[in-house]
Design goal:
InterPro entries: DUF7342, WH_DNA-bd_sf. The protein has 180 residues and is mostly helical. The protein folds into 2 domains: 3-76, Arc Repressor Mutant, subunit A; 80-179. It is 67% helix and 6% strand. It has 10 helices and 3 strands; from the N terminus they run αααβααββααααα. It has helices at residues 3-6, 12-16, 19-29, 36-43, 47-59, 78-91, 96-117, 122-127, 136-164, 172-179, and strands at 34-35, 63-66, 73-76. Strands 1-3-2 form a 3-stranded antiparallel sheet. The longest helix is centred in the C-terminal third of the chain and has 29 residues, at 136-164. It is flat and about 50 Å long. The termini are far apart.
Length: 180
C-alpha cells in the first residue's frame, strides 16, 4: 500500500482551499440570508474566523448584513452582482442586437407559460399544484417551470439593464475613443 492510499479521503474543497476561501465561496452562493453559524458549518470552519471574513466582505460591499431579525444574517449584495453581470454581458462576445434577441426570447417564454397555464406569475403557477388531478410528474414540471420563470425574470432585468446602459458599461478606453 502506498502512502496516499493510507490517508483518509478528504473532499476537494478541504484539500485545495483555506477556511477563508470556503467561507467566501459559501457566502457568495447563498440564495437567502444566512447566519454566521450556518455559513461556518457549510464552510467547515469555526465561528469567529468566519465572522471576521464575513465582516470584511460586508466592508468590501460583497455581502449585506441584516441585523433586523433575531439573528444577524448575511447575503450577497444582489445589486453589485447584477452590475457585475451587466458588465460581463457588455464585455462578452455578444452584440447589443444579440442581447436584444435573447431578451425577446426570454419574454416570449414567459408569455408562453402565462398562456399555457392561464397564470400571471410563478407563484400562481405553483398554486395550480393544488389541483388533485395532476400527476406527480406534472407537479414536478410546474415546480421546475416556476423556478425557471423566476430565474428568467431576474435575467430579463439584468439583460435589459445591460442593453439600456450599453454605452455607459463600455470599457473606459472604448468610451474615450467614441467621444473623440
Amino acid at each position: 500500500m502506498d502512502k496516499d492510499s493510507e490517508e483518509p479521503e478528504t473532499g476537494l474543497m478541504e484539500r485545495q482551499t483555506t477556511g477563508e476561501d470556503r467561507v467566501r465561496m459559501v457566502a457568495r452562493q447563498v440564495s437567502e440570508p444566512r447566519t454566521v453559524n450556518w455559513i461556518a458549518s457549510e464552510a467547515e470552519w469555526s465561528h469567529e474566523p468566519t465572522k471576521r471574513v464575513l465582516e470584511r466582505l460586508v466592508d468590501d460591499g460583497v455581502l449585506r448584513r441584516d441585523e433586523s431579525g433575531a439573528h444577524t444574517t448575511y447575503s450577497p449584495d444582489y445589486r453589485r452582482q447584477a452590475m457585475q453581470e451587466a458588465v460581463r454581458l457588455r464585455d462578452g462576445h455578444r452584440t447589443v442586437e444579440e442581447l436584444t434577441d435573447r431578451l425577446s426570447e426570454m419574454k416570449a417564454q414567459i408569455r408562453d407559460w402565462e398562456e399555457t397555464f392561464a397564470v400571471e406569475s410563478p407563484n400562481q403557477l405553483r398554486a395550480t399544484i393544488a389541483d388533485e388531478t395532476l400527476s406527480s410528474d406534472e407537479e414536478a414540471q410546474r415546480r421546475a417551470i416556476a423556478r425557471e420563470w423566476e430565474h428568467l425574470q431576474q435575467r430579463i432585468q439584468i439583460v435589459g439593464f445591460a442593453i439600456r446602459e450599453w454605452d455607459f458599461l463600455a470599457p473606459s478606453a472604448d468610451r474615450a475613443e467614441a467621444s473623440n
